[in-house]
Design a protein that fits this description.
Layout lengths: L1 H12 L4 H34 L3 H8 L24 H45 L17 H61 L5 H40 L8 H14 L6 E2 L3 E2 L2 H5 L9
Antiparallel strand pairs: 1-2
Length: 305
Amino acid sequence: MKDLTDCLYVNWNALETSEEYNIMRKYAKNSRRYSLGYSLYCFVALYLFLSMSLIPQLLDVVLPLNKSRPILLTYPGYYFVDQRKYFFYIFLHAIVAWEIAMTGIVAHDCIFVTYVEHVCSMFAVIGFRLEHLFYNRNDQVKTINTNTDNAYRKRIAFIVHAHRKALKYTQLLEDTFNVPFAMQILIVTIGMSITLLQISTFFMLKMMQQNNSNILESMRYALYVIGELIHLFFLSFEGQKLIDHSLQIRDKIYNNCWYKVSIKSQKLIILIMIKTLRLSFLSAGKIYIFSLESFTMVRPEDYYK
């Protein structure tokens, strides 16, 4: 984690022009916007999920019955006390416990988003340099002069070095988050499988016995599944951005006037073209690749098979 942060500062200091700085700043703002939105969603969803435990207590006050409704704990647990008498103490304990757990998850994912947006900005800066490879620094007119081929070779060599740094940063990011995300995906898969099984069980009981007492419980389980899918989509969306940005380098090279420079300069460009043939991606345990294509293959009905 420290190496990723150190490289982030080094890459910011290596910027040459104000245009490159604006590109990096744009992606930094995106990471902050995504992190704030994701954090807000997680904590709002958490409090909505926990507040469903108060619905039976609220209904006992608004629409009382001859007997108290069954209590609904935030999660199954045994506190070795009267759960109805100490319900609000148990509820406060659950809030504190879930807030601590959610804070760790949100912090981990927001740091991941920050690093992914940074490596995407690195690829964007490389693409900008490739697009303006044959532009004069003082104007915006594309000019190719064979007499200054040495200057072009220096620019291309600098771009090759920057592209190699971006690939190394991506690999470091993959090595850092590979195992944690593998454990996270494993826990999510097991949790969703058990949750969907419970939802189907409650649905069958409702159909057979016309029992409405477990409606709130089944709704909470359904919200949990939806929340996990949104969480997985968020990570897959960031992984897809990285894949798209790594592939855009190849398009930027193809659309440029690389064929008008000398053979020596073309050989340097080929080094980047060869590297772009291999996708840059992030995965969980080298099994699940974070991309929108992988996310669309995750269907709730698959957990019943």
